[in-house]
Amino acid sequence: MPDRILVVNPNSTDAVTQGIDDAMAPLRIPGGPEIGCYIAAMGVGQRLAADLPVGLGVLELADAHMTLARMIETGRRLRDRYGADVLVMGCSGMARYRAELEEAVQIPVVEPTQAAVAMAIGRVRLGWGRGLTLPGG
Questions:
Q1: Whose CA is closest to 5, among 41, 32, 33, 39?
Q2: What integer pLDDT is reported at residue 133 of this predicted model?
Q3: CA of 45: how far to CAs of 2, 15, 38, 51, 129, in Å?
Q4: Torsion region of 84: left, alpha or beta (phi above 0 gives left; psi -120 to 50 gives alpha)
Q5: Exposure pattern of 26-36 as b/e (b: 16+ CB <10 Å)?
Q6: Closest CA to 107 of 89, 87, 82
Q7: Around Cβ 75, how many Cβ atoms within 10 Å?
Q8: Mean pLDDT score of the chain, rounded to an integer?
Q9: Residue 65: pLDDT band by 50, 70, 90 thresholds?
Q10: Contacts (Cβ under 8 Å, ≥6 apart) of 38
Q11: SS (H, E, C) the chain
Q12: Contact call for residues 54 and 68 (beta carbons, < 8 A)
């Protein structure tokens, strides 16, 4: 077992990092590894226009029409009131709305799961990571 596990918050906000740290509390056990939570030093915090919720509960998210309408409303508010020039979706369960949202708000919309898979495909195509030994392998 490693002596230390680092959990990195890529969105660069103290409040979310604290929430992640709080969620790690039950996993910190005597004799276990140190678990530290840190903000990624990516410099994106100062470029964040705003972070707004769509304000729907889990059951309400099942209504595709209402969900997309709320996402469009929130996206336009981010663009018009806060000056966002790109939207980054915060829930991979909303990936199916990305294209329609982008069309409605007329600025790029990034869906994190799709972006991560696209990056992974690029790494594979470029041959990055070949020759690495995976744990247990």
A1: 33
A2: 66
A3: 30, 12, 13, 11, 29
A4: beta
A5: eeeeeeeeebe
A6: 87
A7: 23
A8: 82
A9: very high
A10: 6, 7, 8, 9, 17
A11: CCCEEEEEECCCCHHHHHHHHHHHHHHCCCCCCEEEEEECCCCCHHHCCCCCCCCCCCCHHHCHHHHHHHHHHHHHHHHHCCCCCCEECCCHHHHHHHHHHHHHHCCCEECHHHHHHHHHHHHHHHCCCCCCCCCCC
A12: no
Identify residue 122 by its one-letter amino acid code: G
Residue whose C-alpha is closest to residue 20's, from 9, 6, 33: 9
pTM of the model: 0.63
Tokens of residue 21, six digits: 């740290």
Query: Which segment, 29-43, 60-74, 113-127, is predicted with the most confidence on average?
Result: 60-74
Residue 6, strand partner residues = 36
Which residues, in sequence order, are CB contacts of 111 under 8 Å at separation 6+? Answer: 89, 92, 94, 95, 98
